[in-house]
Amino acid sequence: MALHPYDLFDIRSMLSDEERAVQDAVARFTDERVLPIIGDCFDQARFPHELVPEMASLGLLGSSLPEEYGCAGLNAVSYGLICQELERGDSGLRSFASVQSSLCMYPIFAYGTEDQRRRWLPDMAAGNVIGCFGLTEPHGGSDPANMKTHAKRDGDDWILNGAKMWITNGNLAHVAIVWAMTDDGIQGFLVEKDFAGFSAQEIHKKMSLRASVTSALFFDGVRVPEANRLPNVRGLKGPLGCLTQARYGITWGPIGAAIACLDEALKYTGERILFDRPVSANQAVQLKLADMARRITAAQLLSLQLGRLKDAGKMQPTQVSLAKWNNCRMAIDIAREARDLLGGAGITTEHCPIRHALNLESVITYEGTETVHQLVVGRELTGINAF
Ligand code: TGC
Ligand code: FAD
Questions:
Q1: Which is the closest atom of ligand 2 to the Cα of 142?
Q2: Do 224 and 243 share a domain, yes or no?
Q3: Could you tell me the pTM of the whole model?
Q4: Beta bridge partner(s), residue 178
Q5: What is the pLDDT of residue 1?
Q6: How many domains does one find in the chain?
Q7: CATH code for the domain of 245
Q8: Boundary of a domain, candidates 230, 263, 278
Q9: Is the pLDDT at 108 greater than 80, yes or no?
Q10: Do 378 and 241 fall within a single domain?
Q11: SS3 264
């Protein structure tokens, strides 16, 4: 029996019935609702906002959180498959889901009060309230410990000053999870859209993640009530704990982008006739296609094992760093190679590789650059902090 070209090691057989059903539902959504419009969205630099209610009704927002908060209560592998199938459509949609789920709903669930959970999570799962996550600052995102944004206690409130940069969903968001330095170290605050002194400014001229909203956030003496502080975490481990959740999903997402690129490359080189035979009949081309399949297969096995470790409560941040590094590098290399195999046709958004290649420039940079993740692995091996 022929092997499935995008699942050479039969990873599907290692999934539970529920995990397969989740993957199939999101794959259908991507095929029917995302792929027909996403090239135009990218061209027009438009986030397809109209898809948010459907994503919510499929349970894709906060999918791993408990049902009592209106969420789907799925396991980590299912969340990974959601990320993979969304990013097979576009990194922008996966980004939206990552930020909403792992960077906004997760900290409210993990670090918030019961009142905060009940106030925010059901509406966020339903897609009625959109969140964004403000950690990175204009002077340098790789070293968030050195943040300048600060919050000072003033009676029952906090006064927030500073700025955040490159914030996904910034101009869409009803609430921003903002990390700020206080006299007691870094703390998280729920900053609501209409708080006086808070503004968001969309970043234009992007050549990457064009179907996603990216913004700068400004805080000019914003008064935040104590009830909007996340009380159950302090220090950099607060935001880094959220990043571990999101980075885990990002290890899966680029697998979807890479599969989409391999799919286009296989079809195109199979149909295009040069020198009296299909382009894919050339050894040099088959080597490239085989290498793509090899790297996708290795990435799939890495993410699945990572997911199983996460579901068993054993996943370590260093393992997430290794997989994020490997899988982003795998996908960006494949997207660029697929673009090349399409020749001139590869430079337009009629075909997906250039869009994925450009998007992956962001994915390999955000949530910790490739170098940051390499240094995390280096630190684990040597015991020496090289940052
Ligand atoms: P370090 O001394 O290593 O750690 C400080 C404290 O944090 C704990 N910790 C972690 N906890 C959970 N998960 C992790 N991954 C953790 N890594 C560290 C650590 O145990 C310690 O806790 P404690 O209790 O001892 O205080 O911190 P460091 O200052 O040396 O920093 C290390 C470094 C460089 C790895 C870190 O700063 C880093 O990861 N930098 C990259 C920043 C980053 O990834 N920013 C992403 C911004 S959000 C984003 O990009 C969203 S894109 C969304 C989308 O559209 O999909
Ligand atoms: P810098 O930290 O200035 O790094 C510049 C270069 O220096 C990089 O190549 C880096 O690898 C290298 N470098 C840094 N330190 C070292 C070192 N010690 N040794 C060797 N090399 C080093 N952030 C958020 O908080 N929320 C979001 O929602 C969000 N969404 C984003 C969406 C997009 C589209 C993009 C592009 C970014 C987003 N980010 C977000 C920001 C992202 O996390 C940062 O861009 C990233 O962490 C890198 O920070 P920086 O851009 O300031 O680069």
A1: 2
A2: no
A3: 0.98
A4: 134, 189
A5: 73
A6: 3
A7: 1.20.140.10
A8: 230
A9: yes
A10: yes
A11: helix
